[in-house]
Amino acid sequence: MPLKLLIVGQLPPPYHGSNVMTKIFMVSLQKMGFEVSIAEKTFSMRLDEVERYSIKKLMRALVVTINLVRIFVSARTDLCFYFISIKPPTIYLDIMFLLLLRLKRMNIVLYIHGKGFRKFCKSSLLMRRLLKSPIISNSLGAIVLGERLKKDIDFFIPNDRLFVLPNCVPDIDSRVLCTQSTKVNCDKINILYLSNLMPDKGPIEFLKMAREVVDSGEPVKFILAGATTSESFQQEIDRIISDLKLKDNVETVGGVYGSEKERLFHESDIFVFPTHHEAFGLVNIEAMRAGIPVISSNEGCIPEVVIDGLNGYVVNPLNILQLSDRVLRLVCDEELRIKMGKAGRKIYEEYFTVEVYERKLEDAMRFFLKLRCL
């Protein structure tokens, strides 16, 4: 009889790192022969609902809560993987659900896609007590995305119960892409930003950097891609583009997905993701998959993915002059761009493909099943 696994998380939509990885995680476990079921805690159906409050969302949360309680009461499972949130109020619901699972005597593994637990606890004595309570601390263990993220949670889950499982993205057939697309603006260096348009993802810093680079006189074109999370923030981005006189230098393309997204990566020369608050950053390995250098932030485990000076640069995203300097280094040196792009592609192939993820996941399952038997 195959082991029964329960995943508590959210599948796309909306499309962001945690949701995308929940699906890859579920499919990978099924391929390994486990009997997998999922209990979805879907509070936001669209990006513009994330971190917003409304009567409609409150009603959906109530329905989701009732459904999850019903599933947990009747569940018969050998191991439960719980994608826990860090942001209130969702984390308080998570703790309530984890308490119910604990009362069911389930073996629980936390899957942690965010960061900020230690910082949150410094500002909230209640949260510190909750995380260090048996509800959380007696979990079988936890999955983290990188070595640097262990210190964020090791005060409530010790290191000997933590397993590092980096994210992944499926590879693509670049031969098909090459027949479908031809690079535009061949006389210019295309510099790409691609992420959901949220303040802490760094689109404003990208635009400020663009102004500095344009002023250098180098032949560049900036592409700002991503779905907006609010009309007011989109208006702010439009205003900044106008105020910085970047209308002729920045192309905004909105949300891009699937083959259109891959085409955009392959038509770009440099990828810039100056995020303020990120645990991993799937878009960075998507850029590495496409063989272009990455400039990103000293956030979360990004420095474990973007090796400063090898496949790109790691910067302080709020330091616009530093960000601009690293971009200009790559703009002015084609040989360096190609070298870093190839290094990024090699790192992707060695560490961040689905096949590598599945091999690591097999190790993770052995790790947690061994803890379960102790």
Any descriptors?
alpha/beta, Rossmann fold, 2 domains, six-stranded parallel β-sheet, 16 helices
Count of helical stretches: 16
- What is the second-level CATH architecture of the largest domain? 3-Layer(aba) Sandwich
**Percent of residues in helices:** 40-55%
Give a short account of the largest sheet.
6 strands, parallel
Rg calculated over all Cα atoms: 21 Å
What's the CATH topology label of the largest domain? Rossmann fold
Taking pLDDT < 50 over at least 5 consecutive residues as the criterion, the unreliable ranges are none
Overall mean pLDDT score?
Answer: 91
CATH superfamily of the largest domain: Glycogen Phosphorylase B
CATH top level assignment of the largest domain: Alpha Beta
Number of E-state strands: 12
Structural class by sheet pairing and helices: alpha/beta
Termini Cα gap = 21 Å
Shape: globular
Work out the strand percent.
15-25%
Please write the string of helix (H) and strand (E) elements: EHEHEHEHHHEHEHEHEHEHEHEHEHHH
Numbering strands along the chain, what is their spatial order in the largest sheet? Answer: 2-1-3-4-5-6
Number of domains: 2
Description:
The chain starts with a strand and ends with a helix. The chain contains 16 helices and twelve strands. It folds into two domains: 4-167 and 354-373, Glycogen Phosphorylase B (Rossmann fold); 174-351, Rossmann fold (3-Layer(aba) Sandwich). The strands form two sheets. Strands 2-1-3-4-5-6 form a six-stranded parallel beta sheet, sandwiched between helices. Helix 2 packs parallel to helix 3, helix 9 crosses helix 14 and helix 12 crosses helix 15. With 374 residues, it is α/β, with parallel strands linked by helices.
